[in-house]
Structures are given as structure tokens and as C-alpha cells.
Amino acid sequence: MANTEQLKPYLLAFPGPLRDRLVAAVLSGEKTSTTGLLVEYEAEGEELPPVGERSALIDSDGREVAVLELTEVRVLPLGEVDLRHALDEGEGHRSVAEWRADHEAFWHGDEMREALGDPDFTVDDTTLVVAERFRVVRDLR
């Protein structure tokens, strides 16, 4: 296995209670997908990760807790996210509407708007998102 110091960090949300819940859901096997904004990649000058890439899942304390491998990466309009993807995010949503309401609250939050450098940032059905699927290949705890 590669030294985890050489792996890119895999960050879910911002440090704090939400990241803690998401990391716990990954480690328990409940969370096998996640959704980000394409504009986040563009703002950071990053290319989309390729299928097969391995990354170190980082907790709120900055510790590497698992090695993840991407099994699928799709770019699609927000309005096309389906129920399977929403359920596989492991956050307890029972519908796409619930999933979307939570994600919009996050994406419209102050931390995300600050990270994007746009205090008025909003999403709609046409906003491009990056839907990723992954698997835990190694638990580092």
C-alpha cells in the first residue's frame, strides 16, 4: 500500500460537526457517494479526479482516517441527481427533495460562499455538480 502521506486529501464539508458525521458515515459503510460543485474545482484550479484515484479521508482534526478509491465520477446538472445517489450519500435522506434541501443549505452557506469568493452564490437545476462514488480500501484508525 502506498504511503498515505503521498495521497491527496479527501475532504468532506468543512471541519466541524457536519464533517464528523460524514466521515463517520463513510467509515461505517453508510456513505458511498458524495456531491460537490464543479465550480469548486474551477475556483481551486483543480482537475476532476479520475476513477481509480486513491485519497486519504481527513477528519475534522486533520487526521487521515481511511484510504478511499474513486469508483465513479460524473458531472451532471443538479436537477438530474437521482434517488440512488441521494440515498448512497448516507445522510438519512429519503427523497431527492430532502437531499437537495440539505445540500442547497450547505452550498448557500457563508462558508461555501466565502470559499467560492461569491457572497451571492446560489444553485439551480442547471448548476453542474460532481457526483462521486467511492469505496474504503483501508481503515487507518
From TrEMBL:
ASCH domain mapped to chain residues: 12-138
Protein name: ASCH domain-containing protein
Pfam families: ASCH (PF04266)
Highest taxon of the lineage: Bacteria
Family annotation (InterPro entries): ASCH_domain, DUF984, PUA-like_sf
Coiled-coil annotated residue ranges, if any: none
